[in-house]
Design goal:
With 584 residues, the chain is of the alpha/beta class. It has three domains: 147 residues, no CATH class; 214 residues, P-loop containing nucleotide triphosphate hydrolases (Rossmann fold), CATH 3.40.50; 191 residues, Rossmann fold, CATH 3.40.50. Helices cover 36% and strands 19% of the residues. It is built from 20 helices and 20 strands. The protein has a seven-stranded mixed sheet with strand order 12-20-17-13-16-15-14. A six-stranded parallel sheet has the order 8-7-9-10-6-11. A five-stranded mixed sheet has the order 1-4-2-3-5, with helices on one face. Helix 4 crosses helix 5. The two termini are 44 Å apart. The model has no long low-confidence stretch (mean pLDDT 93).
């Protein structure tokens, strides 16, 4: 028998005035939900979560807010004799995050109300929170279970995130720097760089900042609780005035991730899909931007041969317009620097995967000129249960100085799978148990099915044949994803629970020289081995080896719970067996 109860009231002046006069509603920590459910499949509801010590008084405050009074109709208050302030803050945070990932309601809270609260007996309360969620699910406040929500793109890319210490410090410092620069009315060129390995939460920071800045600009809900949060100090009149009317945007070079973020922004009050743009859209905009946040900045392009003559002309026309014809070799990073008063780059140089990506040496030259107090390094691993050790291990394996011994990573499930049939069985089994399990592969097979829909692209033997991803955007959530293999261009920037990684014949191992090498003929990404003729930059074997090993390192660091690896080249398989046991 649980100790909590949920009571329901109408959210209007008459009902609030008639609330029962009992201590739990006027002098006790509680959590409450205000909402109006969606009407019909295409509409969206509205929802707001809060915690308070004086529920009756807080409801009267909310009725003074025009947006809430117009958009919300029902109150649910969660009461428990064992609740304390810390437990209520934690429950509120849980419910906000789940509601954002559920996706059926506009969450009217600020993201500053989401935190990670440690307190006595938290484990016990967390179990109670799951029971509370399930009761709210049965009453229609939520539409999906917790596992379904946690696996959704809305949850993973939502701005309602608990920041770790690295992320919180970076966000706080970036905001203070922006306030300083905006107050001084500095001109174009203020640069901030956030670096981090896969899974350290670079996209989390980008989306969190977009929501925080947007809410400050409109001073969302001045009555909202949150005086104890570290970002509440920004919701003051002087700061609001600095951010009011600013032109802000988020730049995402990859098509698939950009589409997913647009979907999240459309479902988040204060944000809009039009805020998520390509570098081209920024460059061609008639006005400059006050703040641009660039996610996956390592995927910004230098000038190179484009997929079509029209695309070539577009790149050239942008350079001519922005730089008066004086910089024909200007890159997309140059465009953004020319268009933004404040530019924030989220960057991992080890995730460059094509010759068109801006060269590492150019970024290093740029970073040398960025003041130390405008550079941030994220260290804490947020994705992989294998932690930072697993991420470093993978990159070391593909380096010139590989590990000297095999390591294990606790509950993280990783190993080689010799049988392609076994690989498929493992991925399907984990999909049935945990969801979000996919097969991904290096670009070591031609994309025949692009023109012939019936053709199979990847033949691994044992009757296992796969097509490349039919969907080029949001492939992870597409209906046919379990029968396909995703490429680097569909999976970079995404999380999986389990990844089945196929390493093709493009990457091999020489047991005599004791080194990795690449087979150009087996690498079928034509743009992936193209020379950058305008800059007289050849895609040498050394550069291509770096790019292909980066691709496989990215693929092998997508899995939250585990990674299964199938290797085509026998010698590479023997090499990797030094570091991973064989499964099955």
């Amino acid at each position: 028998m649980t100790g909590f109860r949920i009571e329901e009231y109408d959210f209007n002046p008459g009902a609030v005035k008639a609330l029962p006069r009992e201590e739990k509603l006027s002098n006790w920590p509680v959590v409450y939900v205000l909402n109006t459910p969606p009407v019909g499949k295409k509409s969206r509801g509205s929802i707001y979560f809060g915690e308070t010590l004086n529920f009756s008084s807080r409801m009267r405050q909310h009725l003074d807010n025009d947006e809430k009074r117009q958009r919300l109709s029902t109150i649910r208050v969660i009461l428990d004799n064992t609740f304390n302030k810390s437990a209520c803050l934690d429950l509120e945070s849980h419910l906000i995050r789940y509601a954002a990932g559920d996706g059926t309601n506009d969450v009217l809270n600020r993201n500053t109300g989401v935190g990670n609260y440690e307190y006595y007996n938290r484990e016990k309360y967390t179990r109670i929170f799951d029971e509370i969620f399930n009761e709210l699910l049965m009453t229609g406040v939520f539409s999906r279970s917790i596992p379904e929500i946690v696996n959704s793109e809305l949850f993973k890319l939502s701005p309602f995130k608990v920041l770790n210490e690295d992320q919180a410090i970076a966000v706080m410092d970036i905001m203070e720097g922006l306030i300083e620069d905006l107050a001084e009315e500095t001109q174009q060129g203020n640069l901030v760089v956030v670096e981090g390995d896969p899974g350290t939460g670079k996209t989390v920071i980008a989306v969190y900042l977009m929501k925080l800045i947007s809410d400050i600009a409109v001073h969302r809900d001045r009555y909202e609780a949150g005086a104890d949060t570290m970002f509440s100090e920004f919701f003051v009149e002087d700061t609001v005035r600095l951010f009011d009317g600013l032109r802000i945007g988020m730049v995402v070079p990859q098509q698939s991730l950009r589409k997913s973020l647009k979907n999240v922004f459309d479902k988040t009050p204060g944000l809009d899909s039009s805020m998520v743009m390509t570098p081209h859209e920024i460059a061609e905009n008639t006005e400059d931007f006050d703040i641009l946040i660039v996610d996956e900045a390592h995927r910004l392009n230098q000038f190179s041969s484009q997929p079509s003559a029209a695309a070539n002309r577009r790149f050239q026309d942008i350079n001519a317009a922005l730089f008066d014809g004086e910089r024909p070799q200007a890159s997309q990073l140059d465009w953004l620097r020319a268009k933004a008063r404040n530019l924030i780059l989220l960057l991992d140089l080890k995730q460059s995967v094509r010759p068109q990506d801006l060269p590492q040496e150019e970024y290093l030259e740029l970073l040398a000129d960025v003041p130390k107090d405008r550079r941030y390094r994220l260290h804490t691993q947020m994705r992989s249960m294998g932690g930072n050790d697993y991420i470093s291990y993978v990159y070391d394996i593909f380096s010139h100085v590989p590990p000297t011994e095999r390591l294990s990573f606790g509950d993280y499930e990783v190993g080689l799978v010799d049988s392609p049939r076994k690989l498929v069985e493992l991925v399907h089994a984990r999909e049935a148990e945990h969801g979000l399990s996919r097969i991904v592969a290096g670009y070591a097979w031609p994309w025949k099915s692009k023109k012939d829909k019936a053709a199979m692209d990847i033949d691994l033997g044992e009757g296992i044949q796969l097509q490349w991803n039919k969907a080029v955007v949001d492939w992870v959530n597409s209906p046919t994803a379990m029968e396909e293999a995703g490429s680097i261009h569909t999976i970079q920037g995404y999380d999986l629970n389990y990844a089945g990684v196929v390493i093709g014949a493009d990457l091999r191992y020489d047991p005599v020289k004791k080194e990795l090498f690449i087979d150009r003929a087996s690498y079928h990404d034509s743009f992936g081995k193209q020379n950058i003729t305008v800059r007289k930059r050849k895609t040498t074997d050394e550069l291509l080896t770096s790019l292909i090993t980066n691709i496989y390192a990215v693929l092998m660091t997508r899995g939250i719970r585990g990674t299964f690896i199938h290797v085509v080249d026998p010698e590479l398989r023997k090499y990797l067996n030094r570091y991973f046991e064989v499964i099955g």
